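Incident review: delayed structure delivery

Summary: a single-chain prediction request sat in the queue longer than the usual turnaround. Root cause was a stuck worker, restarted by the on-call engineer. No data loss occurred. The affected request and its eventual output are reproduced below so the record is complete for anyone auditing the incident later.

Affected input:
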Amino acid sequence: MAVKIVDKTDIDPDNLQKIWREIEIMRQLAHRHIIQLYQVMETETFIHIVMEFASNGEIFDYVVSRGRTSEREAALKFSQILSAVNYCHNNRVVHRDLKSENLLLDAEGNIKLADFGFSNRFMPGFALSTWCGSPPYAAPELFEVRG
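Output delivered after worker restart:
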């Protein structure tokens, strides 16, 4: 298990609300390629979020340490990512921060989608309007200056 500890005295009300949204979304999701939320314990000053532990770390580190993978392995990992994202979308959840650091590997080397801090619920046909994610991974057109 992994435990994320949030000091409620160290964050503003907006960010605390986002943490609770992340927890509620994770409670709703149960998929073999998504980190499982086990328990949430709250005290006056802390929130302890107990989750599944992905013992083989980030896919980013895996690729850096191993270099190229076979096409077969890449296709398997990619299909696991698609399965997790499809499951989220079918449950009206959008992750909004897909990147290699948020794709973890379990003991068997299977993908586990993690970090739902930017996630949100959506309604089909209605766009979300808030920008989020990690700037180094954003599409260049998001930074275009329009006159």
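Verification: The chain has three helices and seven strands.
Action items: add queue-age alerting; document worker restart procedure.
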